[in-house]
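Curious: why this fold?
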Amino acid sequence: EVIHEQFLSDELSGPDSDAGETNEAWKVRLAAAAGLPTSPELLAKFEIFEITVPNWRSLWFSNLIHDMEAQAGLDKKLKYHRVDVGRPSDRIPRWAPYNFGISSDWWGRQRN
């Protein structure tokens, strides 16, 4: 498979337990980063997820996945927002992607 669920970005539904940030503060921070309204009344009307992008994934493969996710979002009336604030993920997939999906910079660091 070219695209497998193991290759996708993770969606976090709340702050890290050790971050010391409340769920409400986390939601406001993400909404502000996405240019969404930050009032509690409006935030209560939708879900928000923080996206973490795998460090191992190549930019080309990430762009392909983001384009596909954006198209899927246009086809549906989604009641949630996915926000990428630039936090990376060190999670490695259990399935090996094709070589074009692996970041050559990441691969070089792993080999050293």
About this structure: DSSP finds four helices and three strands in the chain. The chain has one domain: 5-111.
